[in-house]
Amino acid sequence: MTLSFFDQFMSPTWLGIPLMALALTLPWLLFPTPSDRWLNNRLLTLQNWFINRFTQQLFLPLSPGGHKWAVLLTSLMLFLITLNMLGLLPYTFTPTTQLSLNMGLAVPLWLATLILGMRNQPTLALGHLLPEGTPTPLIPVLIIIETISLFIRPLALGVRLTANLTAGHLLIQLIATAAFVLLPLMPTVAILTTTVLFLLTLLEVAVAMIQAYVFVLLLSLYLQENV
């Protein structure tokens, strides 16, 4: 049986039934349920502290009109972090390595911020397409460039998340395979490779959290331009 390093990115199926919906639903069961008690357990207290700090930092530069998005963006942040972290466990599937899923998250949210800006302040929203003080001969060229960069934003959001997670998973699998092959031949080199694998796994844990934060942070910046 030949091993393909890209088999781990295939959507799981059972009896021909895609399990993508199940992979997206189960992580929500891991979150502790909030209670009405004054004193909560440590896990719930840590979760509440993290949500409060994240919401405060994310929406600090936004106007009060953008605070309506707090629940949506905070939930998206927790959802992406959970999916990315669970994908680092052995024999698991990472839904966020699928470009279709990431684009399905990025395009509607980006489009919502764009429509919000066009509805509330169309002059200011269209003003981003032409910087102030632009020479007259450059106006058509700059409008085309800014329009292209505007429509590339959701593609950049989806591709960034997909590429970072896919590259990390591939690198972990390559180094793990090398350590397994080198173990009977050169044990010392295999031990060093395993050490590198452990450090890389720690780095991927950080990348999993940072990429989820960057995804939501860029959405908040797009929202800031249109609110």
UniProtKB/TrEMBL annotation:
<dbReference type="InterPro" id="IPR035908">
    <property type="entry name" value="F0_ATP_A_sf"/>
</dbReference>
<dbReference type="InterPro" id="IPR000568">
    <property type="entry name" value="ATP_synth_F0_asu"/>
</dbReference>
<keyword id="KW-0406">Ion transport</keyword>
<keyword id="KW-0999">Mitochondrion inner membrane</keyword>
<keyword id="KW-1133">Transmembrane helix</keyword>
<keyword id="KW-0813">Transport</keyword>
<keyword id="KW-0472">Membrane</keyword>
<keyword id="KW-0812">Transmembrane</keyword>
<comment type="subunit">
    <text>Component of the ATP synthase complex composed at least of ATP5F1A/subunit alpha, ATP5F1B/subunit beta, ATP5MC1/subunit c (homooctomer), MT-ATP6/subunit a, MT-ATP8/subunit 8, ATP5ME/subunit e, ATP5MF/subunit f, ATP5MG/subunit g, ATP5MK/subunit k, ATP5MJ/subunit j, ATP5F1C/subunit gamma, ATP5F1D/subunit delta, ATP5F1E/subunit epsilon, ATP5PF/subunit F6, ATP5PB/subunit b, ATP5PD/subunit d, ATP5PO/subunit OSCP.</text>
</comment>
<keyword id="KW-0375">Hydrogen ion transport</keyword>
<keyword id="KW-0496">Mitochondrion</keyword>
<keyword id="KW-0138">CF(0)</keyword>
<feature type="transmembrane region" description="Helical">
    <location>
        <begin position="69"/>
        <end position="89"/>
    </location>
</feature>
<protein>
    <recommendedName>
        <fullName>ATP synthase subunit a</fullName>
    </recommendedName>
</protein>
<comment type="similarity">
    <text>Belongs to the ATPase A chain family.</text>
</comment>
<dbReference type="GO" id="GO:0045259">
    <property type="term" value="C:proton-transporting ATP synthase complex"/>
</dbReference>
<feature type="transmembrane region" description="Helical">
    <location>
        <begin position="12"/>
        <end position="31"/>
    </location>
</feature>
<dbReference type="InterPro" id="IPR045083">
    <property type="entry name" value="ATP_synth_F0_asu_bact/mt"/>
</dbReference>
<feature type="transmembrane region" description="Helical">
    <location>
        <begin position="101"/>
        <end position="118"/>
    </location>
</feature>
<dbReference type="GO" id="GO:0005743">
    <property type="term" value="C:mitochondrial inner membrane"/>
</dbReference>
<dbReference type="Pfam" id="PF00119">
    <property type="entry name" value="ATP-synt_A"/>
</dbReference>
<feature type="transmembrane region" description="Helical">
    <location>
        <begin position="198"/>
        <end position="223"/>
    </location>
</feature>
<feature type="transmembrane region" description="Helical">
    <location>
        <begin position="170"/>
        <end position="192"/>
    </location>
</feature>
<dbReference type="InterPro" id="IPR023011">
    <property type="entry name" value="ATP_synth_F0_asu_AS"/>
</dbReference>
<dbReference type="GO" id="GO:0046933">
    <property type="term" value="F:proton-transporting ATP synthase activity, rotational mechanism"/>
</dbReference>
<feature type="transmembrane region" description="Helical">
    <location>
        <begin position="138"/>
        <end position="158"/>
    </location>
</feature>
<keyword id="KW-0066">ATP synthesis</keyword>
